[in-house]
Amino acid sequence: MSKIKKLKPIRFSDTFNSAEKNLAAGVVKKSAKIRGDYQEHGRSYYAVECGFCLGHFDAYKWSLRGGGKRCPHCGALMGSLFDMYQWAALVPNQTEKNRVKK
C-alpha cells in the first residue's frame, strides 16, 4: 500500500529559487494565452486560456497585480506577466518528459 502525498496549492514563493536565481525544482512554467481584453462598465478583465489544462477563465486586471489568479480547473497560478506555474507532479506526462531529457 503506497502513500500518496497531497501537494499544497502552489504559491509565488514556491516558484523561484533565489539562491540559484532560477525556477525552483519541481515547478513547471508555461505561458497563458489571452483570448480577450475587456473593459465593460469599469470591470476590466482578461479572458484567459490556461497553459496547462487549456481551460478558460476570467482574470480581473486588479487581481493580477496582487497575488495573481488561480486557474479554477487545475489550480495553476498566473501572475501579472501571464506566466503560469504548477507543481511538476500535477502536470500530466511531465515526469515522462523529464526522464526522456536525462
| Secondary structure tally, helices | 3
**Distance separating the two termini:** 29 Å
> Order of SSEs, N→C?
HEEEEEEHEEEH
Query: Based on helices, strands and strand pairing, what is the structural class?
Result: alpha+beta
What form results from the Cα inertia axes?
globular
What percentage of the residues does DSSP assign to strands (E)? Answer: 35-45%
- Summarize model confidence as the mean pLDDT: 84
> Total strand count, please?
9
Radius of gyration, in Å, reads 15 Å
Largest sheet: 4 strands, antiparallel
Specify the helix fraction band.
10-25%
Q: Which stretches are low in confidence, meaning pLDDT under 50 for 5 or more residues running?
A: 95-102
Adjacency order of strands in the biggest sheet: 3-9-8-7
